[in-house]
Amino acid sequence: MHEDIAVFSGNAHPELAAEICAHLGTPLRPVRVSRFANDCLEVQLQANCRERDVFLIQPLVPPVQENLVELLLMLDAAKGASAARTTVVLPHYAYARSDKKDAPRISIGGRLVADLMVAAGADRVLAMTLHSPQVHGFFSVPVDHLHALRELAAHFRQYDLDNAVVVSPDLGNAKPAADFARLLGVPVAAGAKQRYEDDRVSISAVIGEVMGKDVIVLDDEIARGSTVLELLDRLRELKVNSIRVACTHGLFADGALDRISAAEDVLEVVCTNTVPIPPDKQMPKLRVLSIAPALAEAMRRIHNGESVSVLFDQV
């Protein structure tokens, strides 16, 4: 890479940032984060940014608010240091789930936080598998929206897929599931889901043929896992042959991975490294795929003024 690129990372996922920089062949520049006695943060980017193409890598993962403020301060520091352009590399955007007003007097965090990033100095955003397509439109700056379907498909092609079917837990995720099924050359099915609370969902039926099939469940993220666990109950009632679970963002909160892995008929759980997977969550059934090469290639293309959309055609 050229000398006029500068890549920085906050504390959210430095391992992913280091892997991206290894693929780019450019060093990960140091960042100093200090906390004052009054609990306020201060960020210093410890490398020259003047007239540089700056990339800030920071997924919004727990602690989300801490990592968000860190990102906003990094953006402000880059802007104050006369960066030529600042791109936020956002492997996971937690506030994307807050994308509509589905109850009276509630905030729409997805749009607000997008506005905060732009106000702080973001010129461009590189995101991975946003919770819904419309979140792209919350940003008033260009957004390159990648997905991990190619990486997931490459993993599942090692298996015999003659009897396989991709199942989306709900109709909202049906289009990515259909795209994924097309990559694998298998049919698709979807659950009819209704969500009552953050951790309480009901799936009344599965639309599509799944009986006796080898099922690959695909969702964009697994947090508490309530949706996947509910879907597993329906799939067992329909007497499927085997189950594998896949997602882009493996958040696995509140013991979700333990509960999903404990099911004997679940052969494996596959996710990517958009969010850090702590050592205590590593278990035999879990497979973590790297999206660092895809993000690195997108960053290279952004820097060189090349098309990013062609990445979706190279399946």
Automatic annotation (TrEMBL):
<protein>
    <recommendedName>
        <fullName>ribose-phosphate diphosphokinase</fullName>
        <ecNumber>2.7.6.1</ecNumber>
    </recommendedName>
</protein>
<dbReference type="Pfam" id="PF14572">
    <property type="entry name" value="Pribosyl_synth"/>
</dbReference>
<feature type="domain" description="Ribose-phosphate pyrophosphokinase N-terminal">
    <location>
        <begin position="6"/>
        <end position="121"/>
    </location>
</feature>
<dbReference type="InterPro" id="IPR029099">
    <property type="entry name" value="Pribosyltran_N"/>
</dbReference>
<dbReference type="InterPro" id="IPR005946">
    <property type="entry name" value="Rib-P_diPkinase"/>
</dbReference>
<dbReference type="Pfam" id="PF13793">
    <property type="entry name" value="Pribosyltran_N"/>
</dbReference>
<keyword id="KW-0418">Kinase</keyword>
<keyword id="KW-0067">ATP-binding</keyword>
<keyword id="KW-0808">Transferase</keyword>
<keyword id="KW-0545">Nucleotide biosynthesis</keyword>
<keyword id="KW-0547">Nucleotide-binding</keyword>
<dbReference type="InterPro" id="IPR000836">
    <property type="entry name" value="PRTase_dom"/>
</dbReference>
<dbReference type="InterPro" id="IPR029057">
    <property type="entry name" value="PRTase-like"/>
</dbReference>
